[in-house]
Write a structure and sequence with these properties.
By secondary structure, this protein is of the alpha+beta class. The chain has helices at about 15-25, 55-65, 90-100, 125-150, and strands at about 25, 35, 45-50, 50-55, 70-75, 85-90, 115, 120. About 35% of the residues lie in helices and about 15% in strands. The termini are far apart.
Length: about 150
């Protein structure tokens, strides 16, 4: 069954992989078993044991019955959680339907609904306007610096 996991190091057995995953993980207050993979960022999917995704490897050795045609999803919403009771297998369509969008962007602005799809817009207009304003200011500063270098005002 381990051969069905893409990117998994072939040197692991089910028992060694189970031990490896549990040694690299910590229990949080909300009941999640959070793993520390090769990356240091918290809240993103982690890779372990070669180039395998930690939640997929955990599903194989901790839950069992892995079907490579289905996606492994966390019910808690934490991408780096490998708690066996939080893992489930869904089709790609079911996984994307169950995903919810937050009402604010990462900078705290309220997101707008797209009238065509009735879902939140992917890009926050306020953040985009601020980024464009910063870009125009940088460009104006570069032009002013270049003009002063040539003796123009």
């Amino acid at each position: 069954m381990l051969s069905a996991v893409k990117g998994l190091s072939r040197y692991h057995t089910e028992e060694s992989l189970r031990t490896y995953l549990l040694e690299r993980s910590q229990r949080t207050e909300d009941g999640c078993l959070v793993i520390e993979g090769y990356g240091r960022r918290r809240g993103v999917h982690q890779k372990v044991a070669g180039r395998a995704w930690a939640h997929i490897a955990a599903y194989v050795v901790l839950v069992g019955g892995y079907d490579p045609a289905l996606d492994v999803d966390q019910t808690c919403g934490a991408a780096d959680c490998i708690e066996p009771t939080h893992l489930r297998q869904l089709s790609r369509a079911e996984a994307s339907r169950s995903r919810n969008q937050s009402a604010q962007c990462r900078n705290g602005h309220d997101r707008e609904l797209d009238p065509a799809t009735a879902r939140y817009r992917r890009v926050c207009r306020t953040c985009n306007q601020e980024a464009q304003r910063r870009w125009r200011e940088r460009e104006a500063a570069e032009v002013a610096q270049a003009r002063s270098a040539y003796g123009r005002s």
